[in-house]
Amino acid sequence: MNILKAILDAFANPIFYSLTLSAATPLLFASLGGLFSEKTGVTNIALEGIMLLGAFSGILGTALFGSPWIGIILAMISGAAAAALHAWASINFQANQIVSATAIILLAQGLTGFLLEPVFGKPGSTEIYDKIPKIELKFLGKGSFLYNMIGSLSPFVYLALILVVVSWFIIYKTKLGLRIIAVGENPEAADTLGVSVYGIRWFGVLMSGLLASLGGAYLSVGELGQFTENMTNGKGFIALAAMILGNWTPKGALFACLLFGAADAMNEQLQSNPSLAIPSSAKPLFNLIPFVITLIVVAGFVGKTRSPAADGVPYEKKG
Amino acid sequence: MPFHIPQEEEYKDYAVVMKGIVKQFPKVLANDNVDLYIKRGEIHAIVGENGAGKSTLMNQLYGLYNADAGKILINGKEIAIDNPKDAIAVGIGMVHQHFMLVGPLSVAENIVLGDEPTKKFNLFDLKRARREVKKISEEYGLKVDVDAKIEDISVGTQQRVEILKTLFRGADILILDEPTAVLTPQETEELFVVLRNLQNDGKTIIFITHKLNEVIAVSNNVTVMRGGKVTGQIPTKETSTRELANMMVGREVLLRVEKEKKEAGEKVLEVQDLKVNDNRDLPAVKGVSFDIRKGEILGIAGVAGNGQSELEDALTGLRKKIAGTVTFNGVDISTATPRDIREAGMSHIAADRYKYAMVKEFTVAYNIALGRHYKQPFADGGFLNHRKINAISKELVKKFDVRPPEIQLSAENLSGGNQQKMVVAREFDYNPLCMVVSQPTRGLDIGAIEFIHSTILDLRQEDVAILLISMELEEILSLSDRILVMYEGQIMGEVTPDEVTMEELGLMMAGSTLEEARSEADE
Ligand SMILES: Nc1ncnc2c1ncn2[C@@H]1O[C@H](COP(=O)(O)OP(=O)(O)O)[C@@H](O)[C@H]1O
Ligand SMILES: [Mg+2]
């Protein structure tokens, strides 16, 4: 049983855990983003597109200004802009939220694909630029098990974990959070108490733009240092699945993202395990592992989760 | 003394004066030059049939709609109320016809929403919210568990939460839009006690209903509306339910249909030890047995959620029966499908009209064909026969007075009463042996109720066996030949309408046996 041994090997390897964390990070940003949007009652399947825009703008900012930090800022601006488009159409004009979000995904794919060559001079991918440096925990001892596990992680990883706590705090401990829940469950009730339904929903959707674009920026300026065409590769949708699996809670999203991240990490470990000798023609099949796990887990759990009651239902102010 | 119409200098004694209010919706003139005078400290009832414009008028007072014309004066001062915030600021609170509550949040959180107490850094202070809510709840005798989630508490308690919401915001003028539509008789009594207490505290109360005995029981003055206009203003002491009904409907109405004496025939439906589970798969009907004979109306009384809807679904084949047998016209239908059951001669007026009885996007004609669309005369070898469908629908719409009599209109454009008439028309046209009728007049107004009641009695006259499930005690008492009271999935007892009072029935619905109810009612 080579495969079983390979799996056990992976679990014993510290790299597996650091890979899990870094694979979970972009998902976590986008998942928390989706959470904010859906908690206020606006679905946002455009996470995929917003991440892609974030990844592209991150590199663009780095290339233009020479600093990946400015890249991050540009990424957040573009994410917020795309989210604003979605908010405007689906909140103020009560457009179909799936259609509006799909349009944003197509727009993001088209725009980044089209701009790649004229801006960066070659098709497919950009040059390699500066990345956000990793945080080295030297005191763990270079080469130690613990160091290999968590000693050299991107600041994005820490930020994502902090954002889980921050999101939980905002939603469950603040005035704003109470209003977010109320608007997502029963906007009419909130409206009759003088709570601005549109204002709260705008906040939720903009948060989804900011967070998802950070997730995208992590892929480019945090991890690779370059942008490649369609580099999000479905991560926005997996993030959406993680949000559902996590039952629309930050803590749930964290566990779901770690699960999907682990699936991704396992896939990588198995593919690179020489004892399995996976032929390169079979690799695309292995790349399906995270998606298959998503499908199975979501199909198994989705009946047990409960979305905000007014999720996806436009609210029309009365005459 | 007739109703006093105040002069301008008297407005300062009036909590609310609305003058010349006009509100035009795309298709209807909902308020047509309405004047309303509410004296400070009174309980003022507004009555009118569904669609009369009562809620529209109140929604303008609460700032949810903006009037096209007219003015509003609060305590003599003219003010503009553009949104609920403005209304709350001048001391108006409203309990809406459909509750405005957030299910997964707690009682305390619902009450403070939009006006939350905060602590340092502007953080939500749940402790203080709980404390403040507890305080006003004790002050006004409105008992609630501040930590319970809204989705876990009864409708009566939810209503208390709604009232507390307005009091928390310091409301002096309370609007209650059809507050009793969802309550049991006991809960209604409790509400009236609360309203009188609030009145003693100096609050002004506007109470909307179309149940006229409630108006007589609790109000000081009444305003009657019909078709967007005010058709009567009168002190309660000087009027009667009969007079109010006539003002409401614009013609003489029968408040209680006359039932002829009739011998029941042979057994048609026999239910033995039936057990049914609810949606969460917990027992909802826990072994009930009864039978119904030809030309007999068997009433099932009970507070919502005591297994009646599961019983209804099980009998009509919409829900699996866990145990027991149902014999219909000599045939075992325990495992039959809804279509088999219909083919065997049972028709069904479902409590949940939008879920089961009609497709609101379909035309009236299609709704009338629904369920028989696959067979003659509605279909010919797999194709709909539109000529026949239209002809039959036209005839039924006329016979059952569905207004407007347009068979090509989508059903969603009809009022609730007319949708129900359309459903009744179709079910009547099945020529059934037995009909399961559930909450047939829920939300309907006096005119439509009168029509539906007389139709049900016509069916009885034609020897149909009828199972009538209803939460309206008046309805059960005036139509049934025998009454079963259901409580927590079981039958508390069988009574006949002339041996039991409304109060005793109410107590049985809360879980007493007939003997217990009798002795308690005597005290
Ligand atoms: N938001 C709305 N848009 C269009 N028509 C409405 C709206 N609200 C109410 N109406 C119509 O206005 C009329 C009055 O309705 P409503 O005030 O709800 O009556 P009531 O409360 O007396 O039953 C009805 O014909 C109703 O269909
Ligand atoms: Mg109304």
Low-confidence stretches of chain A: none
> What class would the helix/strand composition of chain A place it in?
mainly alpha
Question: What name is given to the CATH topology of chain A?
Answer: ABC transporter involved in vitamin B12 uptake, BtuC
- Quaternary status: heterodimer
Alpha-carbon distance between the two ends of chain A: 69 Å
Approximately how much beta-strand content do the residues of chain B carry? Answer: 25-35%
- Helical residues, percent of chain A: over 70%
The hetero molecules present are:
adenosine-5'-diphosphate, magnesium ion
Average the pLDDT over all residues of chain B and give the rounded result: 91
Care to describe what's here?
The complex is a heterodimer of chains A (319) and B (523). By secondary structure, chain A is mainly alpha-helical. In chain A, 71% of the residues lie in helices and 1% in strands. Chain A is built from 14 helices and two strands; from the N terminus they run H-H-H-H-H-E-H-E-H-H-H-H-H-H-H-H. The radius of gyration of chain A is 20 Å and the shape is globular. Chain B has 523 residues and is α/β, with parallel strands linked by helices. In chain B, the strands form five sheets. Chain B has a six-stranded mixed sheet, with helices on both faces. Chain B has a six-stranded mixed sheet with strand order 16-19-20-13-21-22, sandwiched between helices. In chain B, a hairpin with a 2-residue loop joins strand 21 (482-487) and strand 22 (490-495). In chain B, helix 14 packs parallel to helix 15 (446-461) and helix 17 crosses helix 18. Chain B starts with 13 loop residues before the first strand and ends with a helix. At the A-B interface, helix 8 and helix 9 of A face helix 2 of B. The structure holds adenosine-5'-diphosphate and magnesium ion. Adenosine-5'-diphosphate binds at residues 25-26, 28, 30, 48, 50-56 of chain B. Adenosine-5'-diphosphate is lined by residues 25-26, 28, 30, 48, 50-56 of chain B.
